[in-house]
Every structure is written in C-alpha cells, then in structure tokens.
Design a protein that fits this description.
single chain; alpha/beta; Rossmann fold; 2 domains; globular; binds S-adenosylmethionine
C-alpha cells in the first residue's frame, strides 16, 4: 500500500509532535478491507478519526465507501485531507440506516466507552446486510475483554485476532436478531431535570459530579438571579448545564454546542424531554466556531481533560480560547474543573480576572470576567 498516510493532518483538532493523524489499527483495517475483495459500496467505516481508513481505501480505487465520524473536528479533518489528496468518491453519514444499509463489511476503530460500542454494535446488527462482518480494531493497551462481551451481545461469533504492531482486530460475525427498540438513547430523571443520552455522551444520562457542583454554585452566586441575555454551554454533552439554565431562565437565549454528534443528538433529545426545544439551540461544532466573536454574555464550561487516550490539556485550552473569543468584554465564564488541574492562571491569562467561587476536595469552580 503506497498511500501517503504521513500527509494526513489532524487539524482543526489539537496537533502536537506526539499526536498522529493515523495509527497501526488504521493500517490493519485497511489491509483487511483490501483483502476482502468487496466493492467500496459494500463497506462502511465507523470512527475513522481523521479519515485515514476512508481515504486509503478510496485512493486504492474502492469508490462509494460510507463513513461515520462522531467528532466535528474529525469530519473537518477528513474533508480537508480529502481535498488535499484530491479524493472525493465517498460519502459521510450519521450513525443510521443510510450508513449501514446493505453493508457487508464494517470497519470500526473501537470507541473508548462501552456504551458507545454497544450502540454501534446494535446499529450494525440492525441495519447492515444479514451476512455483515464487523471488524473492530484498537491499540492492544486500550482493549478489554468487556469490549468482546459487548460485541457478543449482537454477534454470535466474536474472535480476537493475533496482535500486530501493538494493535489488534476483533472480528464479529453472525448478527443475532435485535430487539424492536434500539438500546439508546437512555433517559434518567434528576431533580427537576431529565437527561437523555446516546452511548457516546459524556457521563451517560447521569448528572456528572463536577457539573452538579457548578450548578450548585450558579444557583448560589446570584449569577442565576441576574439572567444573562445570551448563554453558551460550551462542550454541552447531554446538555445538563444548558437545560438547567434555560429551565431557570425562560427569558435567556441559550446555545448548547459540542463537537461530538452523539452529544449533540443527546442534548437535542434532552431539550425535547424538558419541553425547552424551542428555547435552546443545539449546534454540532468545534469549539463554538460558528458563534460570532464577542456575542455572548455568559459561558458555562465543564472542560474535557483527556484527549483521546493521552492526557493532554490542549483540549481544555482550546475551549478557554473559544470562550475568550465569543464572550463580550465584561462577559462571564463559569468553569468547573478537577482541583488538581489548577487552571486558574491559564484562565486569568486567556480570559481575564478569575476568582474562585467554590472548592470541594475534588472540584474547583471559577468565574472569569472577559477583559
Ligand atoms: C467534561 S464533558 C462536559 C459535558 C457537559 N457540559 C456536562 O457538564 O455534563 C466535556 C464535553 O466537551 C466536549 N468537547 C471537547 N472538546 C470540544 C471542542 N473542541 N468543541 C466542542 N466540544 C468539545 C466533549 O465532547 C464533551 O461532551
């Protein structure tokens, strides 16, 4: 295979020397597809981080590959890499029947969360061809037996292959009949708030403890008694912060935005479940890039602190920079983070004066005023 993997870029995702746009699992999945002898229209790809699998197969002459990526950043990286390499004979889909209808081979980069894998395995068994082969791959150090068990819930045969180049493929065949209703989304009732979650959404239908601490502070600081005209829940997950704010302040305009399609679908369903779908706009976007500069009064943020599997604070910094850009001067950023991360200096540098509003043994909540 002479595909120029090294020309692929992660951009607009975080780029760094130790972060690549392809890995050995991509190569194993591509080799497997090429050896199958199937046409591109019979192959679907799920979790193609920056497009390495789709583009290598398209470059090899397999036209009509269908691809699903969860992250807005991955979708943009694939589009940009495709343009750069002059490749276009593939199509992008949500995780739905249009992605999988008639597919006989599904290539999957294993997701981290088991719930996300469960939703994907169900979708493949539900919508792909009856004789579909699901080939799921990952880095050996991140793979667990529990993943095989999840695949076993939808496929009678699940066989792990020999590890190669520190990656391993697991082949699932003989899809079993699926229940009438898909297992996701799931719903959980909290104090005055309903959360709805697809498999890939942060914390599932639960209210994360950090989120809970931030909500408690918002209730107590008076931030909530002076409702802001325009509020953004940046990295909204299931939309817990946006929904709580909108329920408490019917007069505010609330935007919930996340780079994960699973999060966005969850947040939309959360707004419907709480009867506020007409008052909260949910956007699939990277770091609020479609929100105008200096147009927002308040940003609510529970930032991520893992990037893929490598601990990296770049993902949080990216959201701090986004908050700085979209807030108007004098606008407020409320952030909750693991106290061990000590983000206060960075928030002060990127946003403006930052005060600590709460500190529990585990979490810190700050308010930063945009300079
Ligand atoms: C710790 S979770 C918080 C979710 C939700 N706000 C809550 O409190 O339950 C962080 C969220 O940020 C999202 N995220 C990470 N990087 C992002 C980016 N560049 N743009 C938009 N969302 C991002 C993740 O997908 C995830 O849903």
């Amino acid at each position: 295979m002479d595909f120029p993997f090294s020309r692929l870029r992660r951009w607009p995702d975080v780029e760094a020397d130790n972060l690549q746009a392809h890995d050995a699992t991509d190569l194993l999945l591509v080799e497997r597809a090429l050896a199958s002898g199937l046409g591109g229209s019979e192959i679907a790809v799920i979790g193609d981080d920056y497009g390495a699998i789709t583009l290598a197969l398209t470059d090899a002459g397999l036209d009509g590959i269908r691809v699903h990526q969860d992250l807005a950043t991955g979708r943009r990286a694939l589009a940009r890499n495709a343009e750069e390499l002059g490749l276009s004979a593939f199509s992008a889909h949500e995780l739905d029947a249009t992605l999988l209808d008639g597919a006989r081979l599904v290539l999957l980069q294993l997701p981290k969360a088991l719930a996300e894998l469960e939703e994907i395995a169900d979708a493949v068994a539900r919508w792909a061809a009856p004789d579909v082969v699901l080939v799921a791959g990952g880095r050996v150090k991140h793979m667990t037996i529990a993943q095989n068990d999840v695949l076993g819930g939808r496929f009678a045969q699940v066989q792990a292959q020999r590890a190669e180049r520190k990656s391993r493929l697991v082949v699932a065949t003989e899809a079993v009949p699926v229940p009438a209703e898909p297992p996701f989304p799931v719903t959980e009732q909290h104090d005055g708030l309903v959360l709805v979650a697809h498999g890939g959404a942060f914390a599932g239908p639960r209210l994360d403890i950090g989120t809970r601490v931030l909500l408690g502070v918002l209730d107590g600081t008076g931030a909530s008694s002076r409702p802001a005209p325009t509020v953004v829940d940046l990295g909204c997950g299931t939309g817990a912060l946006a929904a709580s704010y909108a329920l408490a302040h019917p007069e505010s305009r609330v935007i919930a935005t996340d780079r994960s399609a699973a999060a966005v679908a969850s947040a939309r369903a959360t707004m419907v479940a709480n009867g506020i779908a007409d008052r909260v706009v949910v956007m699939h976007d990277d770091a609020g890039s479609e929100i105008a500069d200096a147009s927002v009064d308040t940003v609510l943020l529970n930032p991520p602190f893992h990037l893929g599997s490598s601990v990296h604070t770049g993902a949080a910094t990216r959201l701090f920079e986004a908050a700085a850009r979209i807030l108007r001067p004098g606008g407020e950023l409320f952030t909750v983070y693991n106290s061990s991360l000590g983000y206060r200096a960075e928030l002060t540098r990127l946003i403006g004066v930052t005060e600590q509003l709460e500190r529990t043994p585990k979490f810190t909540v700050t308010r930063s005023i945009r300079r």
